[in-house]
Amino acid sequence: MPRGSILSTLRLRHIGLRAHFRSHPEYYAKEYLSRNQKPIIIDGGGKYLSRGNKTISIRGEPPKRIVLLAFENLDKTQAAFNSAAYAKALMYGEKYAKFRIYAVEGLDPTATE
User: Fold this and answer.
1) What is the pLDDT of residue 74?
2) Which of 12, 21, 25, 39 has the fewest CB atoms within 10 Å, counting from its CB?
3) 22 or 63, which is more confident?
4) Could you tell me whether strands 65-71 and 97-105 are parallel, antiparallel, or unpaired per DSSP bridges?
5) What distance in Å separates the CA atoms of residue 95 and residue 20, rounded to the nearest whole number?
6) Which 3 state secondary structure label does DSSP give 38?
7) Can you point out the beta strands (E) in the chain?
């Protein structure tokens, strides 16, 4: 694997909140967030860079919530989000939120351009 791919892979999880989440955020946290920590953070090696922090719009409508994670590489990112444990957690999360999930390979910090 090229050294540059070890720097980081960013996983953007944009969550468009449904009305049910707005009225019951405690269920979203209990049913989804409590279940996604093990496959994504503990087993998957993900690291939070931002988790629902303030978002401003430079152009266009800002999303309601963004979570930004870093992984060692794209393979580890895919493995974490394709795991059976995450699939189970997502079943609970989708009761309360609409997910759009993307992976972007990070830049090699030693590159000259």
Assistant:
1) 87
2) 25
3) 63
4) unpaired
5) 8
6) helix
7) 9-17, 47-51, 65-71, 97-105
More confident residue, 35 or 24: 35
DSSP class of residue 93? H
CB–CB of 5/87 below 8 Å?
A: no
Fill in the amino acid letter for 61.
E
Long-range contacts of 107-110 (CB under 8 A, 24+ apart): 107/4, 107/7, 108/2, 108/3, 108/4, 108/5, 108/7, 109/4, 109/7, 110/3, 110/4
pTM strictly above 0.85:
no
CA nearest neighbour of 39 among 91, 108, 98? 91
